[in-house]
Amino acid sequence: MANETVLVATGDSGELAAKIAGHMGLPLVAMIKKVFADGEIYHAFPESISGKDLVIIGATHSANAHLELLDLIQGGHYWNAASINVVIPFLGYSTMERAKPFSHEIPKGITRTRLIFQTRPDFVAFVDLHSEAVLHSHRGDIHTAHIWADKLVMEKIRASGLQDFVLVSPDYGFSKRVARLARLLDCPHTAADKDRFDTDKTIVGQISSVVRGKTAVLCDDMIRTGGSIIQTAERCLEAGAREVMVLATHLVLAPGAREKLTASPIKKVIGSDSYPGRHSDDFLDVYSLAPLLAEVLTKRLAL
Fold it and tell me: Could you give the number of structural domains in the chain?
């Protein structure tokens, strides 16, 4: 079956795709890509995909990455792939999943995901979505999967040897996810009181004294600017926490975010390689999604 599957990636997601391919026992097939003088981009599959299962790994963290993913899916149809299976480790615009009444704003989490579904892949998998609303922005004829990284997170925490810790959600909206992870880790959990008053601005109120004398592990789906995470860390220390660490699946880290985080009381940030270009260093502790995504694809393709 392996020679009937072709695994490719968008340009920025090649590193994660290579790891996934390794876990699946498949080669990562490099797309032929050229850029013309006027900026137009040429793509070609280096081998026939006709009658084969095409797997595309592609984060949509930028407009160009999103468009490249659409191009590869459409290319799969054009060259008669037997099936087109897409894994999106990080979904850009995922926080814009709804429009406020009378705002006239565009919910791009929905509209951009709908563009992916309109290319009619057979299967699309997402990782740790900000909201599951985007899963339903198609007509019901596409198989989707929402993959939670809980298993890998649990393994990462246990392997770290961390003792006497409490999981903290930065707001009540994320608290169900944190409660589920706390049950797996058999540890306490709590939530901060957060209000958003602008696009990238929040106010974090008080936090429970359950953090007193413990290591507070702040959990979120992504770190973008770091503002609310830092505020939550400060509230935890005010409530008596011994130290603060952060756990987030998607390490977006907008310009200036890392500098703010390293200057804060936060000791370490743990996250995945869903967002291209994120690697472990003296502050970031990055684990790979590859084993989990390989397992999902192997089951999907019955390899």
Answer: 2
Using alpha carbons, select from 225, 249, 257 the residue that is nearest to residue 89.
249
Count other Cβ atoms within 10 Å, centred on residue 295.
15
Cα angle 121-31-291, degrees, rounded to a multiple of 5: 65
Q: Which of 12, 5, 71, 76 is nearest to 41 (CA)?
A: 71
Cβ partners under 8 Å of residue 300, min gap 6: 85, 123, 125
Please give the C-alpha separations between residue 94 and each of 64, 87, 127, 131, 292, in angstroms, as whole numbers.
16, 15, 11, 7, 21
Give mean pLDDT, residues 43-49: 97
Residue whose token pair is 């006497």: 164
- Determine contact, residues 196/214, Cβ cutoff 8 Å: no
- pLDDT at position 67: 98
Domain co-membership, 6 together with 121: yes
Do 128 and 35 belong to one domain? yes
Q: Which structural domain range is residue 251 located in?
A: 150-272
- pTM for this one? 0.92
Distance between CA atoms of residues 126 and 114, nearest Å: 14
Strands 165-169 and 189-191: parallel
DSSP 31: P
pLDDT tens track for 187-230: 999 988 755 544 445 545 557 788 999 999 999 999 999 998 99
Measure the CA–CA gap between 274 and 144, rounded to whole angstroms: 18
